[in-house]
Model the fold of this input.
Amino acid sequence: MERNSYTQGLQIAFMGDPTEENQEFPFDDSSSAGFSNPNFSQGLQSHHDVRVFGFQQSSLDDRFSQLNLNDIENPTRIVGSDFGPAPIGLFPENSFNGRHVLRSLPSQTMVVDRSPNYSPSTFIEHNVFDFDTNTQRRTPPFERPYNLCDPMRSVNGLGSTMMRPSMHDHHRQPFYSPPPRQLPRENSSYYYIPPLMELKAGDICTVAKDRDRCLALQKKLDNEVLTRGEIDMIFMEVKDHLHELMVHRFANYLIQKLFKAINNEQRTQLLLLLIRSHQRFFQVCTNLYGSRTIQKFIEIVNIEEQKCILLSALKPIAIVLAKDSNGHHIFEPCLKKFSSEETMHLMDGIIQHCVDIAINKSGCCALQQCLTHANDEVSEHFLVRIVANALFLSEDKYGNYVVQFVLQMGLPWVTSMIIGQLQGSFVSLCYSKYGSNVVEKCMKESEEQLSARVIIEILNDPDYLKVFGHDYGNFVIQSALWASKGHANLGIHNAIHCLIRKHYSFLQGSPFGRRILSAASKCRRS
Done:
């Protein structure tokens, strides 16, 4: 049984005189047998700095009592004991060999003094080091206190238990726990930025990329404590690194603040530098931090020249941006800030490819933003194309959200045209995970006459019972119950209840049918 659990990182020397090999130790008790160790000289060959202490006048038991070996579980491991010498190969490297525990340390050999005058105190706290084979260093226990707190924690992946403090040591001090790191206060010197005029070329970019100093500089811009000369100096520093700073996780906030602080002439110059490289401009627009910075620019620009610069740069990449997870957010501030006439050219490409954009995860969101903020003329162009492809979009994973959004707009002519496009396919849509949502929306958002057309088509189908027991179709029937209840003519509502009573046994035996029974019960009580 190996004892790596209490020997790692230790080198303890005891019992012996290095000048005499294979000798017997004298004992005061004449009846005691001599204690010899044939491996004594072998154990000392590679460790010439082992110290020897005068234990000759004490018994073997006294020597062991002074050693504080911390829960030795198997005394037969001691070489040369009364149980006989250990066979060759029994003790691997880093184990206890009867005289000392050997461990090759990176820089020095640690020897623990166990002379009779030694006062045993906190052996573990002061002398045990956790040797990290991966980093080749010794770690004091106070840096990793959990190693000694948990006796069952494995050491270096060997599966052995950690050495625990001696049960006879009653003077142990609590493990040292370093105080938690405290972040400096905002008014501390940690946030100190020297006067800007004293900074060297390139220092502003370094400050912008540091979280705390960048925050301090932003506050100076917000509080308007910087002179115009200092603002101009910051502008001159960052304009040559604009694309790099706009996509940086900290520096992008400084660029946003700076764009607000500079004058219109400098803003125009900054925008021209931004769009000078179309590839780098596109990379900024599709970056998380760059997209936020572009949105801030759009909110701040206030002259026609700056608006034209931005819109002309966005138009060629509008379709790609609409499908990008970060780029599609740029359209909303554009539609809010600029007039319909100004955004008409930007919307032209999106209108032409609106169906392709609608079936994209980010594109369906961008299309809904366009429908929300566009004027009537632009919206009509979008709606005509969406209605013409209503059936295809209703069955799509993302396109169905666009159709539902159009139905929620509450335009009667649009709702009527969508229901006309879907007529004859309502039953098949009930079986679709995405199409069933569109059918429910048609019943809820349309007028009574149009809603009745949808319900009648489903109930008149020869396989209507499959819809009742389907995992998606049962939601359509539940919506039909609630939608028909608000009709002035309750004939359809009563017809649904008649069908439910007729097929009560079937519905009771189906998990989805029981949902319809529960909805019908709630509908009657309300």
Notes: The longest helix spans residues 511-525. The CA atoms of residues 23 and 291 lie 82 Å apart. Residues 1-56, 69-116, 118-176, 182-191 have pLDDT under 50 and may be disordered. The longest strand covers residues 130-132.
